[in-house]
Amino acid sequence: MKALKLFIGLLAGSGVYCYLMWYQTLGINALVFAVLLISAVFWYKKELRKNGIVRFLALSFFLSALAVAMNGITFSQVIYYLVMLTFLGFVQAPELRSVVFGWLSMFLNFFASIKVNFQMTLDAASSLFARKRNIKFRDVRALFSRIVIVSILSLTFFCIFIAANQPFREFFLQLLNPVEDFF
What we know:
By secondary structure, this protein is an all-alpha fold. The chain contains seven helices and no strands. It is globular, with a radius of gyration of 22 Å.
């Protein structure tokens, strides 16, 4: 039941975020999202209400969202994102005691997740080709599905980015001109 509640909350939060931020600049929508995010965190993780660092970061996140809503300058937007990431990092690992370690942990986890994904794909490929006589259909299917899913998602996001970003589209088309001329 708790997993279903968390899934519904994640789905609702993603929907609210898309609704508030789609083709919008940061402003009052950042404040609304900050309030909703802080409320959701303290609703789902009641034990964090007693953690002083998390409460301080929640207040900082709210104040940075308020600054974005009031003036909307680039500096306040950068601070908003930094404080939001720090807040979410401490929500994920409340045992951290320093913001510097929180940022370091965030970057290390980002790079570690990339390494783990590549390692899992390489392990699947090597196990597939290491046992030539005992190739199982599920191994081929697992490797194929990973490659296909990642390729489809990458291509989808690439197409969305090309459609949404005119300078990138022009740059990409300039890269393709020599290929077109060759053929």
